[in-house]
């Protein structure tokens, strides 16, 4: 029997055990960076490389509607989110997000977040111990809520930050983290849907042209306003990814601790180096292991095939650590992005393709802008790093330093 025609074993359980290493382990023996397998009971094809990114994001090949598993929708994205749409509906919904990515929008959010960071640092100096991951989540939540025009932004920040982090932390597990994420999403969708109804009724005033104002008025192809629950989902899809930058803040602190030579250049305020450092943090450290979509038709890639209705996977973690693309992928070297800007089909920590028309994360520019600013502040922060468990387990998705990156002896500027 031809090896390609043998029944495929379902590899869902090994995925849960191996995490980020699951696809790279299987790609290792494939010279063409393609793997045929079975996942969630369906035939699947996993691909990697710039050409594969373009193949994956071709809407003639893959659709998102019905492709994202329910557990991921019920924690990370939300039912009816932009991530679940295709074609005209996807582009129309994305019109809400795109103005937020303009330079003025990114700069405004960064200003609010850095102000919240500076306020927080003054309180850290009064505490014997600070867990940076937790504090970054709170800082980012305070900043994005002020920027988005949410009322009572500071008063609601702590419970909201816990819920936003829980949504991200629980999307890739079947255990208690997942159920915390589900409950958090349900709680915040209901709260924000009520807020949107109050804005529409005039009970609450949203600042003109704020995120809250925009989402309350936004309509898709029929130009009718979104129902309040879907509008709340999309508002969370601004708040949640911003809070998720706390993972990258913890990774940036980890990188500066391991490779302190980068600290001085960041302290100097070298903007180009801060951008390169942000890109290298996103490339080097694990966040999304892979992305997936449902195949529209029978597909063949480098001699391997998957039928219509199967799953096409893009190996994100493996591509960001592919020796053919990065030379020495397990060396943390921001200078690689000073030599040349990142190719959008090579560096894909938040997906590939064009964010204006495709499924690349529309908040990527925000992530980079926030990480640039906060990396400089981290480098300038006067503190100690006590003995702790800084391992980053690849079996946990999404992973982070086990300790959350504890710091002590913070001295306010």
TrEMBL record:
<comment type="similarity">
    <text>Belongs to the cytochrome P450 family.</text>
</comment>
<keyword id="KW-0349">Heme</keyword>
<dbReference type="InterPro" id="IPR001128">
    <property type="entry name" value="Cyt_P450"/>
</dbReference>
<feature type="region of interest" description="Disordered">
    <location>
        <begin position="341"/>
        <end position="361"/>
    </location>
</feature>
<protein>
    <submittedName>
        <fullName>Cytochrome P450</fullName>
    </submittedName>
</protein>
<keyword id="KW-0560">Oxidoreductase</keyword>
<keyword id="KW-0479">Metal-binding</keyword>
<dbReference type="InterPro" id="IPR036396">
    <property type="entry name" value="Cyt_P450_sf"/>
</dbReference>
<keyword id="KW-0503">Monooxygenase</keyword>
<dbReference type="Pfam" id="PF00067">
    <property type="entry name" value="p450"/>
</dbReference>
<dbReference type="InterPro" id="IPR002401">
    <property type="entry name" value="Cyt_P450_E_grp-I"/>
</dbReference>
<keyword id="KW-0408">Iron</keyword>
């Amino acid at each position: 029997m031809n090896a390609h025609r043998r029944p495929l074993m379902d590899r869902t359980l090994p995925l849960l055990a191996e995490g980020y290493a699951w696809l790279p382990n299987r790609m290792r023996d494939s010279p063409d960076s393609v793997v045929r397998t079975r996942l969630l009971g369906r035939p699947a094809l996993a691909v990697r490389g710039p050409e594969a990114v373009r193949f994956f994001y071709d809407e003639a090949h893959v659709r998102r509607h019905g492709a994202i598993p329910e557990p991921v929708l019920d924690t990370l994205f939300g039912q009816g989110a932009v991530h679940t749409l295709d074609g005209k509906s996807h582009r129309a919904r994305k019109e809400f997000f795109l103005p937020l990515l303009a330079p003025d929008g990114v700069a405004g959010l960064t200003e609010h977040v850095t102000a919240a960071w500076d306020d927080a640092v003054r309180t850290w100096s009064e505490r014997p111990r600070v867990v940076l991951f937790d504090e970054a989540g709170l800082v980012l939540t305070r900043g994005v809520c002020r920027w988005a025009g949410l009322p009572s932004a500071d008063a609601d920040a702590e419970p909201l930050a816990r819920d936003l982090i829980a949504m991200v932390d629980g999307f890739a597990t079947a255990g208690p983290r997942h159920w915390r994420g589900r409950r958090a999403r349900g709680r915040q969708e209901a709260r924000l849907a009520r807020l949107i109804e109050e804005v529409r009724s005039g009970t609450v005033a949203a600042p003109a042209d704020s995120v809250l104002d925009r989402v309350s008025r936004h309509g898709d192809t029929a130009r009718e306003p979104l129902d309040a629950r879907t509008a709340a989902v999309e508002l969370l899809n601004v708040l949640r990814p911003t809070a998720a930058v706390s993972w990258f803040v913890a990774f940036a602190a980890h990188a500066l601790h391991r490779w302190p030579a980068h600290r001085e250049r960041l302290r100097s305020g070298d903007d180009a180096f801060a951008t390169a450092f942000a890109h290298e943090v996103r490339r080097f450290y694990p966040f999304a292991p892979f992305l997936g979509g449902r195949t529209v038709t029978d597909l063949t890639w480098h001699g391997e095939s998957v039928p219509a209705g199967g799953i096409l996977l893009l190996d994100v973690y493996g591509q960001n650590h592919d020796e053919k693309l990065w030379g020495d992928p397990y060396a943390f070297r921001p200078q690689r992005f000073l030599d040349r800007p990142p190719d959008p089909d090579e560096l894909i920590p938040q997906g590939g393709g064009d964010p204006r028309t495709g499924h690349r994360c529309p908040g990527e520019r925000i992530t980079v802008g926030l990480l640039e600013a906060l990396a400089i502040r981290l480098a300038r922060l006067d503190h100690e790093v006590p003995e702790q468990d800084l391992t980053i387990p690849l079996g946990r998705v999404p992973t982070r330093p086990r300790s959350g990156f504890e710091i002590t002896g913070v001295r306010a500027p």
